[in-house]
């Protein structure tokens, strides 16, 4: 029987509450699909600062290095905002993890569940057209990591992309498209940026290896507009770090609930860090009302992208869809609901067992 070792880093705020539900779901699907998951929990973020003085303790890093994937909750919160920027939980834990494991690829699916299309600011139009987008964002290069500087009356940031950086992220996008609707929209600003001209050249070259996938190029400004006008137009979006940062948040806003959206950050050898797109939600932490779906769907992404357990991943996604259709949702989805975090987790498990 296949055995996968995962590092469980629940973190702060609602992280620990929603993580409990994701782990229960993983235990059920691993039984059903004939693999085992050995999970070990470790400290990260603000909780780790309080206990050890470091946001990413050595023991946590060692655990991650000895694991096949990281299931991550969320880090940070009001308690730690007075720390210097470099010691803030997110900067001092998540960024070093991305760097250590070369997690160059960020995947953010954004979809509309028909039963809850009214959560979208594009309702009612979006109810008939739908949206099902996978945003593929380059995560370790570009303007965020280029040379920067500041004099008294000026400042600069530089953007640099190499052929190999563009090529590896492009391959992820095209591979993903073959498992979806065979369409890639590559985002750039090739009319003004040198990096975008190179981006286009490399994407065109990679596209030749995927003749079944339709490729289109779109300027970032136009893409931001088309996402609002016609979100159903898109399948896979291929973006650099900056454009992907912006568009993935736009897609989340169109989808309407942070509590439903998972994300994956991958390297070139199937190792990944999986986390909800939302944060620590300090306003509702500890109340048992956080939506566990984003964390549960993050676990599904882990099964798909790190372990290749596609059938188990789909089973979780279907169980989530069925739970939503039954109206078993937390208050962020339906303000009149009396269901809490544990109820939603139990409903997903019941749907898996049905
Ligand atoms: P952080 O700095 O960790 O991102 P934040 O204050 O920005 O914290 P988010 O976690 O990004 O808060 O959440 C933004 C809003 O969405 C909050 O009102 C929060 O309650 C809500 N939210 C986010 N995730 C969930 C969830 N899983 N369930 C319910 N509500 C959520
Ligand atoms: Mg936030």
From TrEMBL:
Superkingdom to which the source organism belongs: Bacteria
Cellular component annotations (GO), alphabetically ordered: cytosol
Residues that coordinate or bind substrate: 98, 108, 137, 221
EC number: 1.1.1.85
Top EC category: oxidoreductase
Subcellular location: Cytoplasm
DNA damage in keyword set: no
Binding-site positions, Mg(2+): 221, 245, 249
Pathway: Amino-acid biosynthesis; L-leucine biosynthesis; L-leucine from 3-methyl-2-oxobutanoate: step 3/4
Gene3D superfamilies for this protein: Isopropylmalate Dehydrogenase
Record: residues binding NAD(+): 77-90
Family: Belongs to the isocitrate and isopropylmalate dehydrogenases family. LeuB type 1 subfamily.
NCBIfam families listed in its UniProt record: leuB
Annotated protein name in UniProt: 3-isopropylmalate dehydrogenase
Source organism of this protein record: Rheinheimera tangshanensis
